[in-house]
Amino acid sequence: MVAFNLVSQKISPRFIEFIQFLFEVIHEFVISYKHRKASYLVVVRQIFFTGVQALWIVSLIAFVIGSTILLQGNSIISTFSQSKIFYTILVSMVVKELGALLTAIIVVARSGTAISTELGNMVVNKEIDALLSFGITPISYLVVPRIIGVVISVSFLTVYFIFTALFGVWFLSLFFTPINLSLFIQNIALEIRFLDVILLVIKTIVFGIIISTISCFQGLSVTLATTEVPQRTIKTVVRSFSWIVVFNILVTIVFYLLVE
Hints:
Elements: H1 2-30, H2 36-52, H3 55-76, H4 84-124, H5 127-133, H6 138-173, H7 181-191, H8 194-220, H9 228-259
Helix pairs in contact: 1-6, 2-6, 3-4, 3-6, 4-6, 4-7, 4-8, 4-9, 6-8, 8-9
């Protein structure tokens, strides 16, 4: 009990600050989302950085994942790519699980750290104070547009990851046991249910919110020294990864318990 009280005393203040931050974000987004014209530019820039500039690394990892599934399957069963279970495994691994999860991890490593570092340096350089002196709320001008941009980017990149991984599987199969493209697409489509698409949409939106919210919160939590910036960046990575993995497990279990 004593240990629990000690832990709760250390965790609660930061947790309460994060909850207050969340309410401020929701308030600015729903009720008083001002400076729309300037914020649109921030959204577009965030999508370009998080979504467009990450295409090459997402392409590489997606192709490797798809190729690995095909090669490992063929090494175990020689007729793997010609069997029905091939499409079942492919959809389960790429569409249902790895697509959204790996895309989120890429975005955390690349964009989450960048957002946290950028906002932390803005705090140290008194740029946040300058915005406040002009009556501009940092959350409406800096945080909300980044959350929107990251959510859109994660959704787009996840779909791109899935298509690239599936294309990689089909392309690599041409060097072993060629698969007819129209038959490949048809069999993949038969394995994907509407509920799988709903689950994928939920995951991508929540992953985007987790990454962007934690990154902005940690960045704006910097107080005075530049030495705090890398510390907050590390916390962004660790906490984003943790919450993404926990949410992925929970939502998958709950979804399949209710639906299956």
